[in-house]
Structure prediction request, 341 residues.
Amino acid sequence: MTCTILVGGQWGDEGKGKCITYFCTKDKPDIIARAGVGPNAGHSVECDGEKYALRLTPSGFFNTDARLLIGAGVLVNPEVFKHELEYLKKYDVKGRTFMDANCAIITEKHTQADKDSAYLSKKIGTTGSGCGPANAERINRTIDYAKDISELEEFITDVPTEVNKAIAEGKDVFVEGSQGFGLSLYYGTYPFVTSKDTCASTAAADVGIGPTKVDEVVVIFKAYTTRVGEGPFPTEISPEEAEKMGIEEYGVVTGRKRRVGLFDKEFAKRSCMINGATQIALTCIDRLYPECYQANKYDDLSQEAKDYIVDIEKDVGVPITIISTGPDLADTIDLRDEKLN
Ligand code: GTP
Ligand code: IMP
Ligand code: MG
Prediction:
């Protein structure tokens, strides 16, 4: 029985979608539960040449035997939820995707307020998905919950009961966070953050799991760093330098160009400390070392890439167990049973 939480270690977009898909296809958890803020997230999932961009549905949907749950802490936009049920029809998500009765509901009023506020949309550079205004209304205790919306009735379940029952029965539960450590309302670069804490403890609370039930915390890092929106970024490099390194990325939700920087070990260490990391997943190593693209054995990595990875593991002090070498599920090195050398 393993209860695993995966969270972003930087400013989001670390490749959570890809790594969650890997864990959920390889380890076949019985329940995949989505934690995190809400539909401000954009997770990319690629498998067998197909590419999906998701905002609410758990990224582990490829595992068609799993139940897909959205925890009470997560904001739900019913339009986005229904669109994704249709979008992922091929994977029979309808009938196995449910949200907690206490998920708070984003409406047009919230998305409009997010876009209309110059402070939010310009100064902070939000995603415009209504999450900040909805969480503000939640704190004011005036927002509707899923249980108040009759059209959502068929999609409602008691997520904490399902998840805790599964754990008690010795089943595997995988909890996926969204955003990243630097965007935490508590520990990130305030005020240039999202509207909630993004760390593993909050992810557990989002789905109704107590800290004593969590076995593994995977913190995911890109081999370099990216950030969308405004705010401090100590290791940022110029767009010209990023281009020279062959790195150019655009946001899944907003289409905005991502700012690029070097890997920040001190930041990673703090992120691992506050998240209680037991493992690190390191993605996009192929973008720094193109010769490593699609490698799926550690020995197939170049010496330069190995040195870079070992150096991060040594300095951050947490084992790197997954190395991602491309966007597809197959482009993965799984070191959970090996030691780096
Ligand atoms: P957020 O919730 O927004 O943080 O989403 P995310 O962490 O799932 O990341 P997102 O999908 O926004 O961005 C990561 C991008 O990198 C996507 O286009 C992925 O397909 C891609 N990707 C993930 N892992 C790798 C990798 O190892 N190598 C390469 N080349 N691309 C990768
Ligand atoms: P909000 O969460 O839409 O309020 O945006 C607040 C900040 O978090 C902005 O800088 C956004 O760019 C950033 N942000 C929110 N969600 C994500 C994400 O999934 N990936 C990357 N950045 C995000
Ligand atoms: Mg993203």
Observations:
- The domain at 3-334 is CATH 3.40.440.10 (Adenylosuccinate Synthetase; Chain A, domain 1).
